[in-house]
Amino acid sequence: MQTIPTLLESRLRAALTDFPGAEPKVAAVNDARFGDYQTNAAMVLAKQARANPRQLAQQIIDKLDVADLCVPPEIAGAGFINFRLRPEALAARFVELARDERLGVPVPAKVKSIVIDFSGPNIAKPMHVGHIRSTILGDSLARIAEFLGHRVVRDNHIGDWGTQFGMLLVGWKTILDREALARDPIAEMERIYKDVNARQQADESVREAARAELVKLQAGDEENLAIWREMIRLSQAQFEAIYGRLGIRFDVTLGESFYNPWLREVVTDLAARGIARESEGAMCVFSDRSGPEKDDPFLISRDGQWVDIPALVQKADGAANYTTTDLATLAHRLREWTPDEIVYVTDGRQQHHFRQVFAIFRRWKSDADVKLAHVWFGSILGEDGKPFKTRSGDTVKLADLLDEAEERAFALVSEKNPTLDERDRREIARVVGLGAVKYADLLPNRQSDYVFSWEKMLSFQGNTAPYLQYSYVRIRSIFRKAAEQGAGSREQGAIVLEALAELALAKKLAQFGEVVPQILDDYRPNLLANYLYELAATFHSFFESCPVLKSEGATQATRLALCNVSARVLAKGLALLGIEAPERM
Ligand code: ARG
Predict the structure, then answer these.
(1) For 15-72, what is each residue's pLDDT tens digit?
(2) What φ, ψ does residue 371 adopt, rounded to 5°?
(3) Closest ligand 1 atom, CA of 353?
(4) Among the CATH numbers 3.40.50.620, 3.40.50.1970, 3.90.550.10, 3.40.50.300, which is that of 113-257+320-377?
(5) 255 Cα: distance to centroid of ligand 1 (angstroms)
(6) Which atom of ligand 1 is nearest to the CA of 326?
(7) Using a 6 Å cutoff on CB, does residue 159 contact ligand 1?
(8) Within 10 A of 567 (CB to CB), how many other CB atoms are there?
(9) Does domain 4-85 have CATH number 2.120.10.80?
């Protein structure tokens, strides 16, 4: 089904006979004084044609045929054309929407194949809150892309290689506590790593031992490989437990080590093509001076001068690094899935890394037709405005955070519903607690830092998951009451939109199909979060001013249908954010 803006845009194109090829844009307006939808087409075209925008707007309106959809359009401001839908037209759209299993979300013009690289935790380390944003954001983008109809590969790029394994191996061989490992493997691996890392900073012999273990591992030493595999197995189990709790799955999980066999080839190929060259024993990629300096990831401005900041692809000791691995990974993904788009979800500190990787890739595979996007995000802060830490100053572990979310939600649910079974309260608390954490993470503009606040995210009022879940529950309870009164069957009647609150709600519901496709333009699930909040608020005003069960006939049928579609859109919207909607709360 087409959205209203798409429909109005095609009518506008038909009216723009003097401007062949024009692409007029129509958007919803949320201020009822300006109607329901608006276009700036006259202003855009008047600029090109050096015409008067208001006059041009009038000429467009004279030719425009929208009488079946809108009351006569009006010109506003500098030359906006405002559209106000006829109630019958909105009602007809609403009937279509109610029948549509995609809830008005159109099928994309081009079905794309999209790889989403997200989560990417590191072996032998606990997943911390830094990984939470990547995991939650990436999962939501994947759900949205899948729902739109794209072919999605969810790819978890695990950090399972690097210098930290030298220290981990020394620790494993000298100070490992087997009992502690059996009890809490991640904590024990973290302990031995921290211990060796602290000692190697002061003690040259420890540093040397770690280096030697690393070299042995890289050379394929059986003993070290076996320990390394054991560390991976133990870590993977922890990751799986968290993904299970969060309802997150991956299509591919490959460690950085998987790409080791190709690293040398990447470096030789880059050198052969003159993209990488030797510098102080290392292999580096420098600027090719092909674009403006300020956009060049291989240059940096120092004291008013542009100086080189090359990308290392091979260190002087011959070892490849994170950049080399990401290049080999890119080549692999291209071979494997010929994607239209590869999306990397990581924190903002990796911006420079990805700018360099993408730039090297463009020079290396200049004929590849793939969009590369680094979807980065800001940090989570504590209420003191500093990076989010535990009371004792440690980084917060994701598992502990989720436990606390469920515990706090349990206290709230028990307070509101003391008579409910403990099992039911636990289940509601799980859905509400995890939902609150996910929503708090998806709601802010992803590039800004946000302050982590339990009170705020678990509040039943305001722009929170519990508020949206509660709105859903409230609608479901209307249907339970309707069923008791035998009113549910009357839902099938004719749809007549009369009251202002009914019209406002039908209009808001029609916008779901407009918002969802926009999310992938700049990978911003917060557009959906904000839409759902507006929808819930619109629903509550409707519900306050329009009695449902006490109404009759077509009015009741219309109101029940509005309730029904509101519940479906809320549940679907939450599901696209990875959040469940409980039946009771
Ligand atoms: N392991 C990395 C980290 O913890 C994230 C990996 C992101 N993906 C990639 N292809 N580099 O920061």
Answers:
(1) 998 898 899 999 999 887 889 999 999 999 999 889 999 999 999 999 999 999 999 9
(2) -85, 130
(3) 11
(4) 3.40.50.620
(5) 10
(6) 10
(7) yes
(8) 20
(9) no
